[in-house]
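The instructor's notes for this session suggest beginning with a concrete chain rather than abstract definitions. Hand out the sequence below and ask the class to guess, before any prediction is shown, which regions might be ordered.
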Amino acid sequence: MKEHIYFLGIGGIGMSALARYHLHIGNKVSGYDRYRSSLCKSLEDEGMHIHYEDRSADLPQDLDRVVYTPAIPANLGEFQILEKSSTPMSKRAKELGHISNKGISMAVAGTHGKTSISCILAHLMAQSSFDCQAFLGGISKNFKSNVHFSSSKHYVLEADEYDRSFLQLEPNFLLISSIDADHLDIYGSSEEIQKGFSVLTQRLRPGGHLLLNEKIDPQLLTESKHFSYGLEDADFSAENIALTDGEFVFDLKHPEGKIEHLKLSYPGRHNLENAVGACAMALLAGVSGNEIREALGSFKGIERRFDLQLATDSCVYIDDYAHHPTEIETSLRSIRELYPNRKMEVLFQPHLYSRTRDFATEFGKALSEADAVFITDIYPAREAPLEGISSQLILEKVSASQKKLVDKDEFLEYLKSAQPELLVSMGAGDVSEWVEPITNCLQELD
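After discussion, reveal the predicted structure:
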């Protein structure tokens, strides 16, 4: 029987994937979000009714179920009304587990890299004889979406650590890319984060496969048998690496042998490592070496992940989702490696007051990889302001000689006179809405 499912926070990348799934299988889908983003506009174009004001009058009366994101504030009027009603409610993670746990679940977890790995893995599986269904944390350029549908029993999932959401999953295959400190507003300490990932490894189904990045100390997580992946001495690793015209060519060493002459047109050594992890998962699932070679060569990338917006003789512009110090430092070093002779200017939007408070010094150090740094106001997402916490905290820790706090209009005006050689925008908030006007501005200057 078809249902009417209401999504509170429908514009989130994970929520929108679930909304698209339910629309695909014939359910009626509607929802609320506080901001009409480009993603929300796409959902509306697909047939979903979305409203953007917290008004009880806008709540549909024929709801069968409600799915909500933990990012929804508890004082939201609609949330409080629905919580008191008889309508069944479940968190996004529980809904994802309900869908995927009935099949062969391939989960990608980790504080960094999970979107890139899951998108590459989904493409490898989709191009193989297995195919897959995928729920992704980014927009795959191959799928032109954050979901992929098929009749396959294989589910590729991004396993989110926020709110311990990933503990709703029961994976057959589990990859963990990293366990750095993050979401300290939820976990409180690095030790608790490690404990959360350790519990996740215990949810692996009997006979399942665990794959860990070689930088992770397995003793922190599990005593179970596992495989390692990386660029050095791991069970699955890249050998004979060459970089030609922005394309990696490498051999993949694995426990049963080697797959030669793989190609990856996705820049950054960290993305080569991500590709090794995705290939390892596909191999463990039974995908052949020839299928992996052919599919990896056709991977197009992910929106807002090392996303090249403009490349001319005078200007290169890259947009990236990096919003944690480790991600920022890794991305900027990779970009510097690609363009060593260009002055690198970075626009960064901090994400969350709590993350700014917890990592201001680390953000400043990471951003200091650039020659010039511009920082916007903090994007609050689910949080209320914290007293004394602002972008100024990060700016003070940046060692670059050219640094400034900016708003959108001010930054666009700066670009008209600056004519940057290499510009990078970074952040997980609505800085994504700046990308098009920045690109247009730079094209006019060229």
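Then share the key points. The first helix runs from residue 13 to 24. The two ends are 56 Å apart (CA to CA).
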